């Protein structure tokens, strides 16, 4: 956040504090700044405006963060729509990398990418319910461990066993976000396809076929 933006944030918090007979000290502002610093300033302003229009009382940082992140249900639905779009566009033969790491946690729990793409209409109805529930659980508790950096399609599932070269994976969503979360994986086994988890190496791998 730029200095002029942090000053504007302080002024906004100071005004809201006065509305609620509170004082905005430098120490309290540091807590707010640490909580919100990673979010774009325009989104922060919009979140405060939404809070003021719908709630009463002095907001806590968690209140604004919840607005910024969106509701768990909304985020789970957006992720599901992204998965359905990838299924329709790429199908079960393609290996995919989503820009959302939680998707990489949920799909393996539900049988993997290939199984997901092969579900019947009736099975998929129940699968979608399970997906949303599991997505919200991971979102709420942050239980993301042993994430696979890619979700294997039929081609790679079969042919990698025989030492054949993997196909180029399809990146679903924002390319930079996909590179970003994969580069932060701490599980060495998840990154066995790289000697170092440097973003530039991952970018090259996704372009050329991981």
TrEMBL record:
One Pfam family in the UniProt entry: DUF6475
Domain of life of the organism encoding this protein: Bacteria
DUF6475 domain: residues covered: 96-178
Protein name: DUF6475 domain-containing protein
Organism: Leptospirillum ferrooxidans (strain C2-3)
Lineage: Bacteria, Pseudomonadati, Nitrospirota, Nitrospiria, Nitrospirales
């Amino acid at each position: 956040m730029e200095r002029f933006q942090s000053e504007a944030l302080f002024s906004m918090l100071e005004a809201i504090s006065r509305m609620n007979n509170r004082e905005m000290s430098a120490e309290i502002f540091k807590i707010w700044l640490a909580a919100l610093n990673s979010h774009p300033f325009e989104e922060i302003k919009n979140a405060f405006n939404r809070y003021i229009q719908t709630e009463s009382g002095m907001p806590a940082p968690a209140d604004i963060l919840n607005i910024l992140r969106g509701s768990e249900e909304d985020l789970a639905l957006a992720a599901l729509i992204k998965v359905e779009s990838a299924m329709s566009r790429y199908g079960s033969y393609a290996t995919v990398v989503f820009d959302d790491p939680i998707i990489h946690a949920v799909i393996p729990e539900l049988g993997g990418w290939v199984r997901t793409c092969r579900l019947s209409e009736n099975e998929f109805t129940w699968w979608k319910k399970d997906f949303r529930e599991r997505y919200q659980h991971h979102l709420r508790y942050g239980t993301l461990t042993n994430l696979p950096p890619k979700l294997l399609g039929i081609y790679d599932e079969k042919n990698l066993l025989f030492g054949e070269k993997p196909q180029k994976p399809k990146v679903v969503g924002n390319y930079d976000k996909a590179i970003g979360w994969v580069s932060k994986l701490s599980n060495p086994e998840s990154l066995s396809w790289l000697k170092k988890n440097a973003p530039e190496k991952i970018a090259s791998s996704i372009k050329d076929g991981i």
